[in-house]
Records
---
Amino acid sequence: MSYPSTWRLIRTAPAPGAWNMALDESILEHIHRGESIPTLRLYAWAPACLSLGHAQPFADVDVARLRAHGWDVVRRLTGGRAILHTDELTYSVTAPADDPRVAGTVLESYNRLAGALMRAVYDLGLPVEMKEHSNRSLTPMLNPVCFEVPSTYEITVDGKKLIGSAQARKKEGVLQHGSLPLHGDLTRICQALVFADAAAREQAAVRLLERATTVESVLGRVVDWETAAQAFVRGFESELGLTFEEGEVSASERARAEELVQEKYAHPSWTERS
């Protein structure tokens, strides 16, 4: 079976975390049924939102501090650890599992998509590298912060992690999403997570700045969301041989996303699992 080189491009307005995660899953379902074509979605979050990995315990969340800051919390369909989504460009790639851009093992498809991400951020002027093997002295499951956790095919600048991505492979297909921090203080996430004491919280913030960075920190200037989005489109087109058709969320995708918000992503039984 041949797969088209044309994918849909969707840019959606900043939205709450539950809606963002529900829409990604809705698109995945529609692609599985042949009602939508493979999609790159570029988006943002409002208000700021802490997202937890699929299996991450809710006990990691400092609910009182989270609410004091006016931040949301959501659980992702994908794995990994916590990310505070604010001042960033978020992308999601949704496609059938045998589409050549995401086919193969998790690592094979992750590596292929990482090439497109590399091209995008390089286009923004960042001297990025991709590390195939990282220092794994830090035990990932014991650390709640995504950008502190080393991963295979990690995109870095001067040894600091720049893009955090995670992938889910379901019977409906492949969903990968990730975040490019554009500006702001990365250590804000430490205000949303549980630590033994204030000293431990401060140590986590110091470690985070040693291991992760933002576009602004590297370039010394702010890159706006639209500029970064255009670079992502060019990177995916050139690296994966794609042509994008600018599209919209369909009425059916929107209706299903609204159901998933109520049934799953805004429901404690999903979000607050231990």
Note: Helices lie at 17-32, 63-68, 106-123, 198-211, 215-219, 225-240, 251-265, 268-271.
---
Amino acid sequence: MKAVIFAGGSGTRLWPLSRKKSPKQFEKIVGDKSTVQLAVDRLIPLFQSKDIFIATNTAYKNIIRQQLPKIPEKNLLFEPEKKDVGPAIALVMGMFRRDNPDEPVVILWSDHLVKKVSHFQKILSVADEYVQKNPKKIVFIAHKPRYASVNLGYIHLGTKVQEKNGIGFFAFQGFKYKPDGDLAEKFFNSGEYAWNLGYFVTTPRFICEEFARLAPEVYNNSEKILEHFGKKDFNQTLIKYYSKFESINFDNAILEKLNKEDAEVITEDIGWSDIGAWESLKEALENHPYENVIRGKVYLEYVRDSLLYNYEDKKLMVGIDLDGLIIVNTGDVLLVAKKTSVPKIKKLVESFEGTKNEKLI
């Protein structure tokens, strides 16, 4: 099995740590490694380095090479411009199809936290074995919801269809992207829905055939590029035709239109969190809901339910009588916000474009 980790997002919800030149997946958010390094680490030793691929933007080429020196150069897949994930997956799977069309591939993301690594690896092994025997299937790896999140997508589960090595497979009934509060509560209480992580295992042949059937314009354009794969003019061809892709999400292009009988779902607790925003990072790292999460030189008195990150070694961050705040100090920016106001960060950063503060984004 091969693994592809997508690492091209901009991460404005984790500003001011995450910036255009070095977005969140390349920053030390948890411990002393970036999240893309952690994403690679949790695949070892189930995968060898030669079977791990990184898909990202050309702007991050030097960062990737620096942070992931053990990943072979040929396994670094650089998109010349951002066109959302649909075209990127079409191109990557098209490359794999030329060598081994029925070898399972797992698609993963670089900005997540997984605490139960051994169980995660067991799930990947079980899914790999299943797809090897069923190359025209796709297996979604979902997560049992911990609460009624309105910031995540959901997968509707059908009946349990089989069990392998203690891992259950469920029928696939469809997706729902970011429901409102009432609907999220209904999903959570029903026990029939799981968080959609964006993780799945399938074969290049299956995905390429689905693109040909459901998104023929994306498929045809990727084929024009792949005709030159392995040739000297490949990069020139990639740049020429990549700009012609429409920006379309993989979910919209393919997954929402899948025949339900072609998919099955594994839903387990792997200690997963999407740490793409400060409040979700706090939820992932806290041991109880009102615990403070701190990093760096921080001194607190009478502070609860807050995240305080200080990236300046020569400055002490002091907090007194605080409740439910996000405070992040990066040297050139000090962010102070209520936890409930974190969703406004993205719009704030976007408003800096074309102003004197543009250099800070």
Note: Residues 117-133 form the longest helix (17 residues).
---
Amino acid sequence: MKKKNPVPLLEFTSKGIYCSLADVYLDPWRPVAKAIISHGHADHARWGHKQYITHQDNVAILKHRLGAIVVSGKAYGETFSINNVTFSFHPSGHVIGAAQIRVEHRGEVWVFTGDYKIKNDGLTLPFEPVKCHTFITESTFGIPVFHWPDPVEVHTAINHWWAANNKAGRASLLLGYSLGKAQRLLHFLDPSIGPIYTHSAVGNMTAVFEGTHAFPPYQNLTAETSKKALAGSLILAPPAATEASWLRKLGDYRSGFASGWMHTRGARRRRAVDQAFVLSDHADWPGLLAAVKATQCENVITTHGYTDLFAQYLREKGWNARTEKTNYEGESIDPKPTL
């Protein structure tokens, strides 16, 4: 894709990614007047901005997480202009309501991905390649060692693991981030195996999507829930919940963790769980390369993750690639709880 205008549309500042022509920030990490938000994870959608613009499916998520904010929603592919700069949201495949942000001015096109994955998870709209001159990409798993297994096989393995625990009269504690991963896990659980419970952080977040997405029956775990009721059940909780005293009420249980980091032995040992499931809401190495190629871009900017190594590889393959520091975190092995 040939560049028509050399004027850079976006710059990296102390507050976030800034479009000076429109006087608007993309996923800023400090309070600003106007913010365009790619998705609802805490490192990309922060409290304190005067105005938020996001995909329409992300509006309820932001309100749930941030409270009373001024926010407007746009459909995928819907264009809107700010000071003659054209913006639009496009599916990133990351989590429900997540989007890439396309920015265009006088023929110059930049795409900010936020976070994304290439494999279709059966719950969110799949990643949509968007042609551009400059592609701003995460690189959370930007080294060749990361190749994800078939997600269908992973969900099948989770249900088999739960069924075995159920047969033995044990509870199954399955850990996944409360926004995105938890809904993905819940969507594919087999309720015929046993009852499904959710930690309040997961259950309250999932309730935001009731009516728009299909989930098997579940109920929040409460102080009144007995050990007897939990025997053979599956409890879906955020990773940080393993520090909580409520684990004692689970009785005899086995733990599992679903994350891309479960691909490495070191991460599995660090989490000290009984079962590891390799399931990520971020692109693996082949996915990152496929995304870059599909944009037909000339320039690539890598953010959060294996930025230097990924940019170096891209330069060796002919792209004009560089890194930029941001406050985005990607998928962490020890994340703070997302409530």
Note: The chain has two domains: 11-146+282-323, 151-277.
---
Amino acid sequence: MTGAVNPTADNADLALTDPLTGLGNSRRFHGKIARLIAERADDPAPFAIGIIDLDGFKPINDLFGRKAGDDILQQAAMRLHAAMDQHSTVTRIGADEFAFLLPMTFSEAAAGERARMLIEVLSAPYDIGERTARLSASVGCSLYFLYSEEPAELITRAETALYHAKRSGRGRVVVYTQEMEEAQKRATRIEQALRRAVSAGEVEPHFQPIVDLETRRIIGFEALARWTDKDLGVVSPGSFIPIAEERGIIGPLAQLLLRKAIAAAQKWPDELFLSFNLSPSQLVDQNTGRAVLSLLERTGFDPRRLEIEITETGVMGDPASAEAIIHDFRNEGIRIALDDFGTGQSSLGRLREFRFDKLKIDRAFVASMLDDRPSEHIVRAILAMSEGLGMTTVAEGIENDEQAQMLLGLGCAGGQGYHFGRPADAATTLDALRRDYAAAAVAAQ
């Protein structure tokens, strides 16, 4: 393969060829699978297919330009073509997606091994003019076992496996299993129910208190999404939030939750703040900032009472976009907190590049710091660094007084966790606040 289509090829061949790389296209891939199934009709021996997605291709394409992106795709195509044996085929089926057919691969273990080899082949540096770039790749595989299977079904299963590979991180290989299909069907059911619930305003914010560790007084609340569906029952945020992210529902969902959270917070004492999470996909959409500021203006809620929590993952997706949104928020008086600090890949770099008002120490360090010296030292280091950078700190996941006392002794200002209160709905939260403030007034007399 030369990386370009042969200009003398006939029209039929051109219709099955990707013009950039000279590889076959998706039509050729479908055709080859169909022919192999037909050849094995009398004796349906297994074979494997896979779909490769280049991780991080779009940012490189955006940064260095389309010509550099095309160069990378051509080099990737040549590497994959060279890695195929005489029986196997590789094609380009999407912008940065390739697919392969392995007729002589008969097991899931063998398919996974071949896929990992292809990832290794793709991980070497790419030449783009005077520069080089590195990419990783994710792969989803599926195996043909039964005569009744169709090419489209095999490809759908490989796509499902690829989806799971990308969710679990870069550079992963996942081979399709029946459990994945069940998980995919459940995700689709959740998606459909969630769309209805958001449209009907049925997802609710619950509020978990954030306290001053020295006085143990509540200083604010974090809004957390809660949803009970009439058919699915209680759906965990760990299930429906990622689905909302992946399937384009997170924007309307966040708007609904923030509107309800602000309505609840307007009934609290003015000194209490509202903390609200923005997802990674919202930080690459400039409409996010405009929507939040517009909602504050319509409701008259003081921006200085709002704290926006973001994660390192959110910042890393599109740093320029995230920086613009953060800048607009800070100009209006909204505080910015970096959530789950210490669990990302480039924490210190992000602290240098972005201005944060607060760091939230991840619950994993809090949970283990009493018994694990490294965790304790990490917490100490985070607190010392935060003080030097002029940021306040809140420790998440505090479950007992011993943890709270140690954190206070180390200089942590705020705390959050079941020890101080579980998330509660708006009415329960307001009732508890009224009791607390009434009790405080009586004590002050």
Note: The chain has a mean pLDDT of 91.
